[in-house]
Amino acid sequence: MEQKVENISIIWKSEYNINNFKIDREHQQLFSIAREALSISKLKKDEEQIEKLKKTITKLFDYVGTHFSNEQKHMESISYPELEEHKLLHKNMINMLTNLVSKLNSMELEQIQQALFNFIEEYFIRHIILEDKKIELWSTNLEDLRKSFGWKQIYSINNPKIDAEHKMLFDIAKEAFTEVEASEKTAKIKDILTRLYDYMKTHFKHEEEYMQQINYPAFKEHKKLHSEIISKINDFVKKLPTLNEDLFEKELAKIIDISLVYHIIQEDRKIINWVKANENKN
Where do transmembrane segments lie in this chain (predicted)? Predict the structure, then answer.
């Protein structure tokens, strides 16, 4: 669901931090360059502005390459197991930007705005939350993970009912990080996963009913994302017999603290933003 050009903005938010100072700083710099390009593209179309815009987008392209190189060196230094898959994602994003740069001369300013916004909002933010967070999660020890895991106010989408249900999902999952006797561990894991699965389905049902009530235009796409998260939980349950306790906690954190957080702050916020935008029209 594309935003109208006049409403487009690129904003760094604290929930995009992956808690690696160097990588977070480079991500913020990319946002800064993208905002610079976006502000130029909103000005009148003349040769001087077009040339300035090309230089800024080229600067963005160069910095993305530098950042990806630094990130890959970091992954190598910590022996990150999904390095090759992550490199491929980087390559695909570089290809997207290469394609944009090659088409600049034939694009209207509004098209350039939309392409920049899509790259940052739909691809880069998704990459940060879904992929870059996996890197830090993998290298975080379990004690620190247990301390940091849970609902945070920055995840709020400012809808009390939906926020309360999101918080409940985190509260159920957080129980997996509490210590119990070894003999009780298997039973506890099964109980938590059953409750998490059931509550997630209930929450998604409520959210889908709400989207239908307000005639949300991206209802079908959003419902499909719900199905994908439920599928991840199913796959996780199937893998349980092969996971040791440490892996279980990290894999659960990956599903909740990455997939669900991304869904909340990127997709669920779109619902609320759509509601606000339509309220302003009335």
Answer: none
- 114-163: pLDDT as tens digits: 888 888 887 888 899 889 988 988 888 878 888 888 898 888 888 899 99
Q: What is the pTM of this model?
A: 0.77
Question: Which residue has tokens 């199905």?
Answer: 227
DSSP 229-240: HHHHHHHHHHHG
**Total count of domains within the chain:** 2
Phi-psi region of 236 (alpha: psi -120 to 50; beta: other; left: phi over 0): alpha
Residues 6+ apart with CB under 8 A from 230: 197, 200, 201, 204
Domain range enclosing 107? 5-139
Q: Is residue 169 a contact partner of residue 263, using CB atoms and an 8 Å limit?
A: no
Average pLDDT of span 68-82:
94
Domain boundary (84, 117, 139) is at 139
Asked whether residue 30 falls in the same domain as residue 122, the answer is: yes
| CATH code for the domain of 234 | 1.20.120.50
